[in-house]
Write a structure and sequence with these properties.
alpha/beta; TIM Barrel; 10 helices
Length: about 290
């Protein structure tokens, strides 16, 4: 008897084009490792804010099985404010430049500023992860069209400073799908190829506990948009809401793994995580079980 494959045939054929001759194949769920080069991120702020520590951590995540490294120079935790362009460039560019010589996996830059994205792409980044879905900087869409770089569009209510102040939906998943339909159409109108677009429903970004759980349980509904789906639930506060033992972010490993597993079982293509080794191990087990006849 032929073994059941982990993903559908059409999904195996789906790829994300990167630089000429490079692509990300979605033959299995991919793991994106989080590298915050900030002093104030909610989970690991200050831990990797020197060049040596940041590069060391990126290479460690690659060795642990990460498929992508996502580098961010501005905290987007609830209540956080923006940093200046110069400060963000100062944080991310040296790390991206250094990693170009050491890592074989793609580097993504986590920014909503077009100038940060432009300079990051010029020194070695291959993807842009924009929490605003190209809404905060009017120059971002034209830049991505010009550079032909993949982009992750994330859903968020408001801004990081105010997103958790009484978020409300009539139908959370339906409203987010409608948002992405508009954003994908906008991207195509601006000259961004649809094959370059990844969507992220934005767990924890302007969401109540019930919203986060609904998104995870109904990820399959996002497939109607025919774009790869990324989920970033790692160490987020909703995990702490469900377990009194997980009040601090660094004690949310179990909940993070459970959320990653739930996301993959419900259709996620990319999982964005802090704990790469543990997530990779968990997904290997899921795949092995799914491949049984």
């Amino acid at each position: 008897m032929q073994k059941q494959i982990f993903v559908k045939t059409e999904e195996i054929k789906q790829v994300i084009p990167l630089a000429p001759g490079r692509q990300l194949e979605l033959s299995r769920p991919l793991v994106m490792g989080i590298l915050n080069v900030t002093p104030d991120s909610f989970s690991d702020g200050g831990r990797y804010n020197t060049l040596e520590r940041a590069v060391e951590r990126a290479l460690q995540m690659e060795a642990e099985g990460a498929d992508i490294i996502d580098i961010g120079g501005e905290s987007t935790r609830p209540g956080s404010g923006p940093v200046t362009l110069d400060k963000e460039l100062e944080r991310v560019l040296p790390v991206i430049r250094a990693l170009k010589n050491y890592t074989k996996i793609p580097v993504s830059v986590d920014t909503y500023k077009a100038e940060v994205a432009r300079q990051a792409l010029e020194v070695g980044a291959e993807m842009v992860n924009d929490i605003s879905a190209l809404r905060f900087d009017p120059a971002m869409a034209a830049l991505l069209a010009e550079k032909k770089a993949p982009v992750i569009l994330m859903h968020m209510l408001g801004t990081p400073r105010d997103m958790q102040k009484n978020p409300s939906y009539k139908d959370c998943v339906a409203e987010i799908i409608e948002f992405f339909a508009e954003r994908v159409a906008f991207c195509e109108k601006m000259g961004i190829d649809k094959s370059k677009i990844i969507i992220d429903p934005g767990i924890g970004f302007g969401k109540r506990l019930s919203d986060n759980l609904e998104i995870l349980s109904k990820l399959g509904e996002f497939k109607k948009l025919t774009r790869p789906v990324m989920v970033g639930a790692s160490r987020k506060s909703f995990i702490g809401m469900l377990s009194t033992e997980s009040t601090s972010p660094d004690r949310r490993l179990g909940g993070s793994i459970a959320a990653a597993v739930a996301a993959v079982l419900n259709g996620a293509d990319i999982i964005r995580v802090h704990d790469v080794a543990e997530t990779v191990e968990a997904l290997k087990i899921i795949r092995a079980v799914k491949e049984q006849p």
